[in-house]
Design brief:
With 173 residues, this protein is of the alpha+beta class. It has a single domain, classed as Ubiquitin-like (UB roll). It is built from 7 helices and 5 strands. A 5-stranded mixed beta sheet has the order 2-1-5-3-4. The longest helix has 24 residues. It starts with a strand and ends in a 14-residue tail after the last helix. 24% of the residues are buried. The structure holds FE2/S2 (inorganic) cluster. FE2/S2 (inorganic) cluster binds next to loops.
Length: 173
């Protein structure tokens, strides 16, 4: 089945996490915690095909505000592809990038809204994280991998390379 992330189409299998589809294809979705549902940088807005994805989990309900849920926001590390069909999502990272290019002054209000929506869920989020058990070594490995991948994406964005590392013809890195 196919899934469109930030206007790029990728192959996905049933059961794949949105985060993993993005990650193997070097697509812009944040995942500083390496997919351990801690960092909250992996927000995506589902534009089409919400019914084809896994149901909203208790973790997502604890972390995402009602407004974000109503807007179709999911956490890519907690959402899996369940049924074939057309799925289109845009990541929060991509939304920020688009704003930066088209309306940089709008970044302030975007950050304020997202900050507020995170703030109202702080108590629930803290309760959720406090009740979890982590494999610290695995977590450390995932975080280092997530940060490394993030820096590669930032580098490729700045040097004009495509997400797969190919240079644009007109760009010199
Ligand atoms: S919360 Fe960190 S990757 Fe989803």
């Amino acid at each position: 089945m196919q899934i469109t992330i930030n206007n790029h189409q990728y192959e996905a299998n049933q059961g794949d996490r949105l985060l993993d589809v993005a990650r193997v294809n070097h697509e812009h979705i944040g995942y500083f915690c390496g997919g351990n549902s801690i960092c909250q940088t992996c927000y995506v807005k589902v534009l089409e095909g919400a019914e084809l994805l896994s149901a909203l989990s208790e973790e997502e309900k604890a972390i995402l505000s009602e407004n974000l849920i109503k807007a179709g926001t999911r956490m890519a590390c907690l959402t899996t592809v369940e049924k074939p069909g057309t799925i289109r999502v845009v990541s929060a990272v991509e939304e920020v990038r688009n704003l930066l290019e088209t309306n940089p002054l709008g970044l302030g209000s975007y950050a304020a809204v997202m900050g507020w929506e995170a703030l109202v869920k702080v108590p629930d989020t803290l309760r959720l994280q406090a009740g979890r058990e982590f494999d610290l070594w695995q977590l450390l490995t995932d975080v280092i991998g997530g940060i490394g991948d993030a820096w590669k994406l930032v580098f490729s964005a700045f040097c004009g390379c495509s997400s797969s590392g190919e240079k644009n013809a007109a760009t010199v890195c």
